[in-house]
Amino acid sequence: MINRIENLLFTEKPPHYDWIIVLGGINDLAYKRSAETIFNQGLKQIYDMILQRKNLNIKLSVMTIIENGFYAPESTYDKQRQILNDMIRNYVKNCQDQNRICLIDIDKYINYHSNKDINQRDTIWDDYVHLTPDGYDLMGKIIFEEIFNKINQQS
Predict the structure, then answer these.
(1) How many domains does the chain have?
(2) b/e for 71-104, b at 16 or more Cβ within 10 A?
(3) Each residue of 99-141: pLDDT tens digit?
(4) Using an 8 Å Cβ cutoff, are 104 and 89 in contact?
(5) H-run or E-run covering 45
(6) Whole-model pTM?
(7) Angle made by CA atoms 154, 4, 103, in degrees to the nearest 5
């Protein structure tokens, strides 16, 4: 993902985007990479690369990673996911350019294990890992609301 972002931002005629939304690290966690490695050797580099291109005035939305039904909350995977989410939250909180960064803390909105409403869970979750179309619609609405709120804070 780093190379794709780099190629996108550092071309002769970079495209004009108002926002770049980054959701990353899910597959890395599944491959048992540590939260620190995923963040420091991946996500942080991507976030920094986007924010350093001040001349493009691109704003950055970073997303936390949702839990899934495949891994129990007490599993090593989920503990690493929680650590990674805290690192993502702290990056946004400590970012010097608060006008150009937005946290989409999707982990707080879309749950598997803590959602005790089986009907709602079945509506949102296709299997233990993937969302249904309704689940992805919910994710899209949350992303929209968070970015919309960020824009309105700045107005």
Answers:
(1) 1
(2) beeeeebbebbbebbebbeebbeebeeeebbbbb
(3) 999 999 999 999 999 899 999 999 999 998 999 999 999 999 9
(4) no
(5) helix 44-52
(6) 0.93
(7) 30
